[in-house]
Every structure is written in C-alpha cells, then in structure tokens.
Amino acid sequence: MKILIYGAGIIGSTYGWQLSKVSCDITVLVRPEKLQSAIENGINIQCSDFRGGQKQTEQVIFRPKIVDKLLPENDFEYIIVPTNCIYLKEILPELKESAGKAHILFFQNMWDDFDEISNYLSPKQYLFGFPFMVGGGRNEHSINSAISGLKYSHTPLGELTGEITPRLQKITKAMEDANLKPVISDHIKIWLITHYAVAAGLSAGIMKAGSGKAFVQNPGIIKEAIKAIREGLSVCTKRGINIKMEKSNKLYSLPLFLAVPIAKKIYSNEAIQLMFDGHTKHAPEEMKKMFADMIEYGEKYNVKSPCLRSLQTSIFESTK
After folding, report:
1. What is the CATH number of domain 2-186?
2. How far is the C-alpha of 315 from the C-alpha of 206, rounded, in Å?
C-alpha cells in the first residue's frame, strides 16, 4: 500500500513509521526548505510506547521517501492529512489539483470544516479519522512521541455516510496490522465534532494548570474544565449533534463529585499526559482556535459559556 503522509509532524511521522513496519510504502511530504535535511538525516523519532502494558522507549531514524511536491500523476493509494486544523484551508486547493486517484484520510481536529472540504473535493475522494493513539512534542533535533496503551485509546476511522467501504476496510486493516487499534465508526462526524468540544475544554484546563501532571493534582481546575466541556457539548447539541451517540461523552454528564475523580484517574496516565503536554505546548494557536470556535458558536446558538470564557482568558495569558 502506497501512502503519502502530508507533513513531517509528530502525528504523521509516528503513524507513518508504525505503518512502515507492516510493509506500507510510506512517503512524507515536507516543505521545500526541509527537503534536503529530511533526505540526508531522516526523521529522528524518540518514542515512548505504552502498548505492551509498560513503557518501552525507542529511538529511531525513520527514513521514508521524501518529497516536497504532490504531483497530479501520483500513484498513492492513500494520502493521510494529519496537519494542524489551522492550515486546512491552505491544503485543500493543492489536494483538489493534485490528489489524483488517492483516497484522502483527513486525520485532524474537525469542527466546521466539512462543508469547506466538500467545496473542493468529491465525497468519493475522502474519509475521516483521528490519531487518538499518538501525541507528543518536538525539539529542533527530534520528534518526541507517545503511543498510548490505555484500553480505550484507539484510532477511529469512518465514512461520513456510515458505510463500511472497501477503502475504509483496507486502511483499517493496515492500522490493525500496525497495532494502532483502529475502530470503524458509523458516526465519525459526531465523534470528531464532540471530540473537538471535549479537547478544547480539557486542553485549556491543562494549559491553565501548567502541565498534565499539575492538572490532575488540582481538582478545582479539573472541575472548571469539565464545566467548560459541558458548555461545548451543549453547543454541539444546539448544532443538531446527538452527543449521546458517542459513549465517551457520558463522563462529562456525571455529577461532578463522580466526574472529577474519574477524570483525575484517566488523565493521570503518563502517555495521556505526554500527549496533551506536547499538543498544548507545540500547538497553542490551534488550541486558541478551538476555544474561539466554541465561544463563537455558543453566541450563535445562545449557549451561555462562562467557564469557556474564563478558561479562554487563562490560555491567552499563558501563551503571551
């Protein structure tokens, strides 16, 4: 299977590396100014892998094929797009012109981007997923990624129609072979939209606390984050999204005296903390966008959002 990873970021590089281990032919698209360095030096990955029940650390120089242009006559079967959601509008024109016959797997945070994608691409060209197994950060020398070993960590994949198509089955099989725990969702749009709301509130709580470790040690901030998540999920409901279809959302409807200790237990996991710390540190602009989207849509649907607004003030101050 020939796969192009759109960008040499944390998620794409780690998923690409794992897929290469099961004989997928991986190419990574990089910016022109990064081309020579990536060809000469490869992609340095330091990975903390928790899938075996305990932490295993591995350092590898991942050497996929490297390109700096996507050509219309390409022969890729899949193009995986795991970029920061801020850049989606920049990417879509290129995908329209040059994706060719490849199936495009959008693999990123999604809120109101579905119509924008449909303006550029035919539904037959794309499907959706989310890299819920992987996260982390980077420095100038290497990617520092974590692969979760938690029971409920997985890689959701799906078609907007809810159908189980041959292309969905094939990419699912590849990720299954790579032990990336794919799960086919018949409501992937609901999964993505509600995850966006949850991630906005949770990430803001972590940013306010200063780190994942500090977050779980502060019941007050956990409570504030859960209240912000509830406001975000209320916005989802006003948008016509049935949040009850996604089981993981049940945590945030529990009474706070139950939800807070459960959340503390879940987010005390080392892999989860590494993933969130990396995201909040290295993608603060995406976090700000997610929060701005929540508040904008809250105003649109007359959803009161005092906790979202309070946390928004905190994250803007923490990233000045």
Report:
1. 3.40.50.720
2. 9
Whole-model pTM? 0.94
Query: CA distances (Å), 58 to each of 50, 144, 159, in order?
Result: 11, 10, 34
- How many C-beta atoms lie closer than 10 Å to residue 73's C-beta? 7
Boundaries of every domain in the chain: 2-186, 190-318
Element (H, E) at 115: helix 114-120
- Paired sense of beta strands 78-81 and 2-6, if any: parallel
Residue 32 near residue 42, CB atoms below 8 Å? no
Query: For 75-122, how does the pLDDT look when each residue is reduced to its tens digit (9 = 90+)?
Result: 999 999 998 889 999 999 999 999 999 999 999 999 999 999 999 999
CA distance 34 to 31: 5
Give the H/E segment covering residue 43: strand 43-49
CATH class for the region spanning 190-318? mainly alpha
